[in-house]
Structures
1.
Amino acid sequence: MTDDDVKDLFDLYEGLCRQALGGEVDVDRITSLFAAEFIGAAPQGVLAGRNDAQLGQAIAREYVHHRKVGTKEMRIRDLRVSPLDEYHCVAHVGWTAVYARDKAPDLPIDFEVHYFLQKLGDEPKIFGWVSGDAEALLKAHGII
């Protein structure tokens, strides 16, 4: 897996996020970026799941929530790749989310997610991620 493979995946992911925040969630394309099974970890715990209809529904609900709290934009500000072997890497992605606020300037909030990727075929797939406490971050900035 090359750094360009990882960059291409996250360029696509960022574009799909932009589209979804605009109200057009391409669930099939977003879920195609994930492996058949995946894990996620955050301060709330660890989850394991399958790339199935339930994941698609969760993604659609998540973007409804993002729009409801005023998320206008999600952009990648930094991408660093840590290779593990020829098939796996960790992509350290620095995101900036921009939130609309009533009678105040837009508020950018930076956060980082560490994605685990595997490339067995033509394209890498996300099979896991580790993130911080998004809810606490939004509460600290008065978003929710």
2.
Amino acid sequence: MNSESVETTQKLAKTLAQIVTPGTTILLHGDLGAGKTTFTQGFARALGIKRPVKSPTFTLVREYQTPDFMLYHLDVYRLGEEGGADDLGLAEYFNASSVSLVEWSEYIQADLPSDVLNVTLTRTDTYDKIDQRKIEVTATGSHSQQILNQLEQTYGLDN
């Protein structure tokens, strides 16, 4: 899908938030400034999170309680290509009773579950239109495929 505004990006995130179930892991892919945190903000607001949602770059993880499950927002950018996640216990955040959104997941591949939703945000700005994004959603397992199928039906998503 193409997004022409922050609001459109967050609308997709809101739709996804209304579909997810505990045990869902969402990997957010994209360059710096692609909209990963913006997506997460829309997602969290749709789940009733009132407090500000900002990137946990320096804390690695922010935790939010929703009425139905814990929501974890991980940003592991500062771990970098050298890794350093081995003894951090990040795999604990990917469990059957929570939902996790992960920015820069390529730095913690060994800790990730195999069944995930991938949301890739790519900037397509032009000189006269900012906030343009291409958003692609893919699934790698049966749980995430069911969610993707619902998202496609509900949102009319066309990857």
3.
Amino acid sequence: MFRLLRSGANARSLSLHRRQSVRSFINLTPSQRSNLGGFSKVFNMLAGAYLGGLVICGGSLYWIYSDANERENIPFDISYPNQIEAVKAINKDDVLQSPQYAAKHYRKILQSISEEEPQDNLELDSYDANDKFDFPMIKSKVLLDEKSNKFANFYINIIIRYAKSLLSRNKPESATKILKKIIDNDEIFFNLGNAEQISSAAQLLGKISQSTEVQVAYLMRTIEMLTRAHPSLKIDNQFLIQENCKVTNEFLHTLNSMAFLYAKESTRSGISKSDKNEVLSNSLNIYLSNLKVLTDIQERVSAEKNGSLKKYYPLFDISPLNLMVQIAEIKAHISEVIWAKGFKENAISWGEEVVDLLFNSYNETSRAAPILISTLNNLSTMYAKMNDKVNSERCLRMTQGIEVYELDRRNWHDETLARFSRIIYNRGPLGIIEKALTERYGSAKPIANLEEYDELD
């Protein structure tokens, strides 16, 4: 019992000693507290820098992800590594405008998805294992019946993006084979993917073939698909737009391509005069029909004040700049068709209208300068054939000061995103902080482009 009392007394004595030690540690002298305060400031600075680094790194990575997701809806049906590859691919393709460096990411996604699928779900008959750019595609029935719409649409759109990126790598054979898997499959072509993107892919496939017959066939197929996807698109048997047709960007582009092929057919060797006049008339009628739609929209855009017209044309760019360029382009084609039909003075008049539209504002978009230069060259030739040397030379002089821009000027958002992307791919997320500190306390260095550190596979 005495032992228990003695041990209890010792425990209380030890506890009292510890409390006294803690009090003596807390009750520091002023000089001791000032020394500790210096370390506290350093600790706060380090903590602030650490948290700031986390915010910048996390924020920049999320910014890149959210931008890629807006450009192409990335489903959660795919694995996390594939989501990362999708962000890299879309970012390099659209933001950095380097599709040749996005091709490897697209292929990695498609191959990874194929590996995750059972063999029975894959189209192995059309897969060439010796072609490193090919991949086993999921069967259309599986995409329609077993996969979610988000996954199926994402999968089809990624395949189209991959094919286009292969064209930038100068791989037309591989691109053609991949595009045909989508465009020639009725179940996919008419039921899956983004109708605008599939339309663009179908026309691209026709252009690769360089055959007028094939191009016409794909244009007809595209028009059928677009009118199925959008019942508000209305045309007659002559491809003329009907009343109350809510045009889309690709629909109008498809009709313009059809009119261009009609005009191209008139230059075929051996064509009779009557057939030539017929195809030229068909071309002219389509162009005039499209022009009427665009001028009507332009008038409504000029008159509207509350922005409601955009809701009426959700898939068409109704910006004044786009309308101006499209109207000018169609008028330039009309000038050429009318000249071929023999109405020379009218053709020159249409060409001069194009010059009036674009000459003072061609530098606002990269699309305008090529149209303006082509029209001026055509006018110079027309005037020369009309024995009007003065106007012919005037048109040639006007072309000399026109600069052609390959890309449009970017806004602040796109330019900053592209800058961050190049830094992150080269130096990692902390490279953004490193770049800022280097420019603040040292000499600034140019940001490396993908070509300088990334490799084509």
4.
Amino acid sequence: MGASKGFFWAVCIICICGSRGYSRSVVDYEKVIRIARKEIGVVERTGKNDGARIAEYLNYCNIKSPAPYCAAWVSWCFGQAGYSQPKTAWSPSLFPTSRLVKEPKPGVVFGIYYSGLGRIGHCGIIESVRNDWVYGLEANTNVVGSREGQGVYRKIRHKRTIAKYADWIK
């Protein structure tokens, strides 16, 4: 009897939250994160932005392989979650003013500014935030966090190293 009462209240809470719009966005952000997590460990075939999976990310944005693919991968993850946008392989275009947010949160896209480029030059999806640290899921990176890496990794970056955050679900 106690277990069924607990289940009843859990269903009621889910229904109430859903009807007030609380759970939909949380579920949507988590869906994007789950898709991105499944890609951890994908690596390039020869280390030159190539390989079947990398080509799939790039093809999603109508880009021929080989090419840098961090933004294409972000776009692909959102596409797999059922979103038509973003759909770009150009990392600066992931940060239009209408999508910018001040605070990082799971499921939001982050961008790293490179002074040598004079623009955002790398991006990823936030998995979690702990104090001043952003745990991100990134493609075209490596163990040291390069923007010219060879695969999909989970990285930890300090908030001060991140230039912009964009919310593509809100």
